[in-house]
Amino acid sequence: MPSNATRERNATENISTVIQDEPEPQPVFTATSSNARQLYNVLKCLNFQSKAQIEINHDGLIVTVEDSRVMQGTAFIESALFTSFVYNPRPTSEASDPPTETFALSLSILLECLQIFTPAEPRQFSNGGQTSNNVFSPAILRSGGTAKFTYNGPGSPLFLTLAEGGDVTTCELTTYEPEMILPIPLRMEELGVKVIMKAAWLHDAIRELDNNLTDTVTLLLRPSSVPSHPSHPSHPPSAPSAPAPDFLLLTSGPLGSATVEFGKQIQILHYTEGYRFSYAFHLIKNAGRAMGLATKASVRGDSQGVLSLQFMIEGDGGGDRDRDRGGVRGTMGEEQGNMGKKMETSFLDFRFVAVEEEE
Amino acid sequence: MRFKTSVRSINTFLKLTQSLSAIAKLAWLRLSEDDVRFVVKAAEGTAVWANLSIEMLFEDYIVTSANNNIINLEVPLDRLHKSLRSCASASQAVLRLTKRASDGSPILALTVTVASASDFLAGSTLITQEIPCRVLSASTVELIQEPQTPDSDVHIFLPPLSRVRGITDRFNKLSTFSLSEDRYKLLLSANMAGEFKMALVGAEVKVESKWHDLQNPVLADSENREGHPSTVRSQTEFAQVRVDGREWAKVLKVQGLSRRVIACICDDQALVLYVFLTEEADPDQSVLTYYMSSYSA
User: For bias kind Basic and acidic residues, which ranges apply (chain A) (predicted)?
Assistant: First the structure.
């Protein structure tokens, strides 16, 4: 049974037909997008594992992919990215607050289906960040059609209807019961580092260090040559008392070590002296496509070594609605203001658990 | 036996050899005073009969033989295609049947005139490429029969092949995610109400593309309209065939050559595609006819 709110919505939507017919049962979820390209581009960033979990809530879609239980990638796709977005929670889902609907599917297949719109394979990550904006170019990816998603709850497939020109393609994707993906928690109250930079810089740094000689990459803060105040281990962003330390990425192996030091143009918003954690390089590279595509990156690490790489991907102006929402962005941490706000922006968050540092 | 001609449209010839070589490596080339015919047959079953007007490809065309001025050759399509490709920028190309000097075996010699790029050297360069071939006797080619199909249940003008091809490529990619025996099996169907469908049924994903508002061609006067299966069935009833998506993708490589395509479906039996190289009003009726059999369900 739909909720009261839903019935009211049905009544207004079907006002012309309600007299003759019983109101048809509303699908749990329907959403229409005339910007399938951006959806494709954002989801493609998570394509390092084929299975994805999709959570529907009133604010949008949250797509999560997990690698080896120590790495997660999450895409936040706001309802504003769709022309219409209707979520009718089932009564059982309404028990949770806010109500959500979660299922798993093959991300590889979903991407392939979205490509029915977008026949050309976009440029690969290996081509480098400097050309990455080209994937938004209409010459490479076609646009102009609409994509409609429909989901009817557990056991039902996800329907994706793509209409373009004279043809309509309907994809029926098998869905699965979601596995329990426990989020990798970032302790916001125990942040060891928080840095904002251009995503391209991070992308360049990772590619620079990618020499296949080491398995891990280390993030560390090194005190700036100007002495700092040992009595203040943690500094607010605007602390005038001490210069911010240098932020470095380091790899080392039997044949030597390599370091990338970010210059002063990055914004170190928060830090703790001596912050140093290492991560599996191949897992960091899972975020490579997002690094290449994003405009801004936020790097955060907590005292337990949990690392969050957050990326802002700006749309190409092909989106639909022009309204601001707190919703999904609000769940992504308080520094959204620093990341800037722009319509048709999507966010990706990659979380990593630190590894024991090799010696 | 003599065959010599100028190539009028290298581009058309190139697209033709490209489309045909996607289906099979060898072609039976029949040259006569009336037309030019290429016939290929794939091991997988797809057959193509390409009947072209002489003007579609050639000019200054001479063919003579003791067999009513008909010459039958077996031609390696890849070699022919590569030779043509290398002369895409040529100002003139001449194709003739001759014998190789060294051993006297038959060859098609493609002689290309390339205008000199240099300002100092006037004139042009001649390049000759040899395509080995085999002369077929009249009794050999008699055995090659054009497939016979019953009257079609449905005939329809297909949507632009470039789009059909793009979607087919995606369907084939989706097939790779499936482990079942049925992967790459496409269901093609159409009705007499202007609808054409292409569907892939996999374990994890089912996909169907549908076109509407297409035209169903009107039967010619010579065809028996009254009792024709396409006129007695319900307009909206679909007739279907099952084809291998990879074979279908090869057929669709004719996309660059086709001006209009009519698909004729004999329900659960066969698909016949008429790929016309000209617009409807054109008196030149050069056509490539593709025959595909339906897999059993």
Answer: 318-327
